[in-house]
Specification:
Radius of gyration: 21 Å
Order of helices and strands: HHEHHEHEHEHEHH
CATH superfamily of the largest domain: SGNH hydrolase
Helix content: 40-55%
Shape: globular
CATH architecture of the largest domain: 3-Layer(aba) Sandwich
Strand order of the largest sheet: 2-1-3-4-5
Number of domains: 2
CATH class of the largest domain: Alpha Beta
Distance between the termini: 17 Å
Oligomer: single chain
Number of helices: 9
């Protein structure tokens, strides 16, 4: 009986993992880019950064990335137009990477989830700076695609919420119309609706739960886009969000396995009682 249960569990796990058939050699190197959401700022309400629990490292673990690097800095965005933050722009992160690394052609994916700091710019400024980033990324990483999401939010300030939703989000969505950019719209405005529990005590940075929520969204998108890209489909067929089937099938398999085990155990107990 134990052997039957073990085989059922093993079969279920194998099926649940079969969807994500890609190798680290195929994926190449992945760069995860972001702002203070990505450094884990104030995640434990103590004002201390804890990057290992922030979305980038968390998503890398969940998506089983083998070759990746995190490029995150507090206060960074596409736009650096505010006084004192002129240099806090994402293009400087990839420029610095290019100056210190020799694996530029091995980088296949840039995953950028941010947005809050771009409230300092107008729609036009975000578009100009964002397109400059895309152009520079294409020069530095000739084989790379960009996965983009606007995840910035504020728990209480309705003025900031309005600008993020109506200006910054629109700019990010329009930037994703570029041929090498895809919007991870499954996590756009990820914490909108999670104001209670999704934020640390500063109402700005994600709590541990908020970080986990963003991370799982990124990981799901990565797993799906890798499957589409490396299992024989054309890049042009990549949709804007992960397939619901991809997310639900493993869950259904696990639930089905639990049901089978419960039935087997019930039968076993019934026989013992007899």
């Amino acid at each position: 009986m134990k052997r039957v249960i073990s085989l059922v569990i093993l079969f279920s796990l194998l099926l649940s993992q079969a969807t994500f058939a890609y190798t680290s050699e195929q994926v190449g190197k992945v760069l995860l880019i972001g702002d203070s959401y990505c450094t884990g700022s104030n995640i434990n309400d103590d004002g201390i950064d804890k990057s290992e629990d922030a979305w980038a490292e968390y998503a890398a673990r969940e998506a089983s990335l083998k070759n990746y690097e995190v490029l995150c800095e507090n206060g960074f965005g596409f736009v650096g137009s505010a006084p004192g933050v002129e240099d806090k722009v994402f293009v400087n992160l990839i420029n610095n990477y290019a100056e210190t690394h020799d694996d530029l052609e091995q980088v296949n994916w840039l995953v950028l989830a941010a947005g809050y700091n771009d409230i300092r710019g107008s729609y036009e400024q975000i578009m100009e700076a964002g397109n400059a980033f895309i152009a520079r990324a294409n020069e530095i990483f000739p084989n790379a695609k960009i996965l983009l999401a606007m995840v910035g939010w504020h728990a209480t300030d309705e003025g900031i919420q309005s600008k993020l939703k109506n200006i910054v989000l629109k700019a990010y969505q329009d930037l994703a119309k570029n041929d090498i950019v895809y919007e991870m719209d499954n996590i756009s405005l990820a914490l909108n609706g999670y104001e209670n529990g999704g934020f640390s005590n500063d109402n700005l940075h994600p709590s541990a739960f908020g970080q986990e929520y963003i991370a799982f969204g990124v990981a799901n998108y990565l797993e799906y886009i890798f499957e589409v890209t490396y299992d024989g489909y054309e890049n042009s067929n990549i949709p804007n969000e992960p397939s619901k089937i991809q997310i639900l099938v493993p869950l259904a398999l696990i639930l089905g396995t639990s049901l089978v085990i419960a039935v087997i155990l019930r039968i076993r107990i019934s026989r013992i009682n007899k």
